[in-house]
Amino acid sequence: MFSRMLYVRQHFPDRRLKDIPGEVQKQLSSSGFGANLKPGARIAIGVGSRGISNIATIVRSVVDFWKSQGFQPFIFPAMGSHGAATAEGQADVLAHLGVHEATMGCPVISQLEVVSVGTTEDGLEAFLDKQAYDSDGVFLIGRVKWHTDFAGKLESGLFKMMAIGLGKFAGAQRYHTWAFNIGMEKVIRNVGRQMIKSGKILGGLAILEDGNHNTAQLTAVPVDVMEQREEELLVQVKSWMGRLPFDLDILMIDEVGKTFSGAGMDCKVVNRSVHGEYNPWDTAPKFVRVFLRGLSDHSYGNGVGVGMADIIHSRYLKKVDWTPTRINSLTSSTPPAVRIPIYYDSDKECLEVIAKTVGKFDMSDIRIGWIGNSLEIGHMALSATFRSEIEKRPELEILGDEWDLPYDEEGNLQNILLHEKLRQLTGYEVSAAH
């Protein structure tokens, strides 16, 4: 029998901004954006598909800024092959994030045609959404953070959006193929530089989130310093990164999906690689096995990331739409990320089967961690065997009494979302992005 469990709060510094619209206006008003544009110019605002906290509020505030300056903004999806690589699918992804014409007060134009803006020194042809190309300037809204699949001075952020995002499906296919040979950082750096040379990029708004997934900083980034500034912002946000506190025999995750990470789950949190490696990151604890319980509704059937698990509940497979899943995996050259693991029809069976593979004879010695998703790791459940170690860590707090895994008659854990119980104990709310 497994050890009893404890609910645990992990305290990360709270860096949340109190007035997001006000901060957007402050940053953009002092940036000089649009100084060389004629009144009435059309501004193309690129928005991606990630589960960024307060994204609708941030985007609407950017739209309001451009309107206040006498320009005509419109929004376009900047998300590569996401949304099943269709114009309708990408518009739908934005709409489910709250980004659509009724809420934004401007048109949302989704289409897949691209225009070439030249070739890099390496021979990479850079592509830009045609509607954005036909505008008077392109403005980017993106979160700067560590990338799930590689490490570098530039990872996820405005430069990556200029490459993978602005290039739509056509660009994403080519860039990932090049990345297989020369590395993703070099691809996004060189394509980003070529995009800047086109003269179409006005700059961007960089979003930084703290360890609690709060909007912690908004920074206006002029195009002429974008590369250097993004490197500095990445160093800053990496210092805020949340991590799970202990090595585990079994890491149990309620939900994965594109809303949490491009790989379905943050590889640098769960310490897995989209190419199949176990524990490749020395910045994270080691996990012997990963058990996935479900696929988020907000992934819209995209099951990328399932291949990083050792075992899954069969409910996961029932929610997968294999068309967007295959497109995303093949476009990013990561077929291992969609391999189907062992699966069973109950949580109890999954846990008991996989527990036999962690190298321990006594099930009560097996150390289990349970999180809702890889993005919000301030709250979790841990085996009670961690109690003495938790009590030595001032950033960790035990909530309530010990409890047994709450199986129902079918052997499933009673709440698909661990957060449901944590909300009762703490008043904690899952962010609106989810």
What is the CATH topology descriptor of the largest domain?
A: Rossmann fold
What's the name of the CATH homologous superfamily of the largest domain?
LarA, N-terminal domain
Strand percent estimate: 15-25%
CATH architecture of the largest domain: 3-Layer(aba) Sandwich
**H/I helix tally:** 15
Shape: globular
Overall average pLDDT: 90
Task: Give the uncertain stretches in residue-range form.
Answer: 429-434
Strand order of the largest sheet: 12-11-10-9-13-14-1-15
Sheet having the most strands: 8 strands, mixed
Main CATH class of the largest domain:
Alpha Beta
Q: Distance N terminus to C terminus?
A: 34 Å
Strand segment tally: 15
The structural class is: alpha/beta
What level of helicity do the residues show?
25-40%
Give a verbal description of the structure.
- By secondary structure, this protein is α/β, with parallel strands linked by helices.
- The protein has two domains: 20-238, LarA, N-terminal domain (Rossmann fold, 3-Layer(aba) Sandwich); 243-377 and 404-426, no CATH class.
- Helix content is 31%, strand content 20%.
- It has 15 helices and 15 strands.
- Helix 1 crosses helix 2 and helix 6 crosses helix 8.
- The longest helix has 15 residues, at 168-182.
- The radius of gyration is 22 Å and the shape is globular.
